[in-house]
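Hey, I was hoping to borrow your eyes for a little while. There's a protein on my desk that I can't quite get my head around. The fold is given in discrete form, as structure tokens running alongside the sequence. I'd be grateful if you could look everything over and explain what you see. Here's the protein in full, and shout if anything looks odd to you:
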Amino acid sequence: MNFPLHFPLDLIMIPVQLIVVFFTLYYFFLSFFGLFKSAPKADSKPEKSFAILVAAHNEENVIGQLVENFHILDYPDRLYDIFVVADNCTDRTAEVARRAGATVFERVDPVQRGKGFAMEWGFANLFKLPKQYDAVAVFDADNLVDPQFLRVMNHHLMKGESVIQGYLDAKNPTDTWVAGTFAICFWVVDHIWHLAKYNIGLSSCLGGTGMVISTEHLKRHGWGATCLTEDLEFTMKCLMEGVPTSWAHDAIVYDEKPLTFMQSWNQRKRWAQGHFDVASRYIPRLFAEGFKRRDVRMFDGILHLLQPHFLILSTLFVLLSMVHQTTPFYTNILYTVLPGEVWAVVAVGQYIFPLVVLTKINAPLKSWFYMLLYPVFIYSWVPITFIGYLHRHDKNWSHTPHSRSMSYHEVIGSFPKDNMLSKQIVKS
């Protein structure tokens, strides 16, 4: 039997091309479901009680504004309390938080460092209190929160959802080009990934802040997520139990985005390291459990965990395809599987989707200029992901410093949004 000269390499390159086709089409078509909201906002009577928990490490510059923000939430005071875990702090975080009106738990543990450990310790302290809550709302110290946040989360809890992620917005989207492109990335993911999955019944993913977890679920299954990406780990832990992460598109939290490229680089490198770590531990288990339960959400979770692996694979494939143009050494089946017109639509679509999202949210004028640098931010994920893979066994936590002190009034006044539920202070 006669085989082409490059037949042995085709045993590798044809499966690689099929993987590229599958991932590209899957996420391209998924994106369309995030361009609309599945249902109009519904309002339930405030019934659920919340413990608001903030894990803070040396956050004296921003913690005061967040705690003050909590005091003006449009939700009955009797149904929520504010707690701050001052984790291994060497500054005035605990003092500032107390002065602003929070109950502070001070934690000192030089060995078990990181947000995951701080949260587990904070949950344990909450469960020892005489007063118990229906759910815990978790935020980062640098955040600001829309006044309607708890009302929206109350509605989702009343619907029976137990693990819920809120809309991740930016409080400083016009500070620098890095903060601006970071914000665009989050807005795009909010719509064409989180909202899209929620609209078609798949599991979203916790984002580390602006998330609500029912106390019953926490007590029954425990937190147990202490890696570099504790939010991703807990998401997959819940999915293993058949509990998806819901998406609350109208529960808005404003997150501080890094101001410099190196801050952004270090933060995303930590995310990549943690992602590879979680993937190595949960993909086999999700695969087995998915077959056992016949649950498509678990297989979708596997695809999410494989995303950085796919980025590495697709990058290597692009480099090899450049060599292939001058020296063909494998059979190119991409245009056999899909015509060139389809690939052209997909290529253009990856730039059209962000523009559609910016239009939908009525983004600041600067954001449209930052779109010119958006590809720089996106493609910088390539070296970050490679480095994250090489350092995937490194468990050292790298803290991202926060210094952008802003009040809730400043954020709302500077950035109107289409899904903003409250533009004025509703409680005195």
In short: Residues 261-293 form the longest helix (33 residues). Residues 414-428 have pLDDT under 50 and may be disordered. The chain is about 50% helix and 10% strand. The longest strand covers residues 246-255.
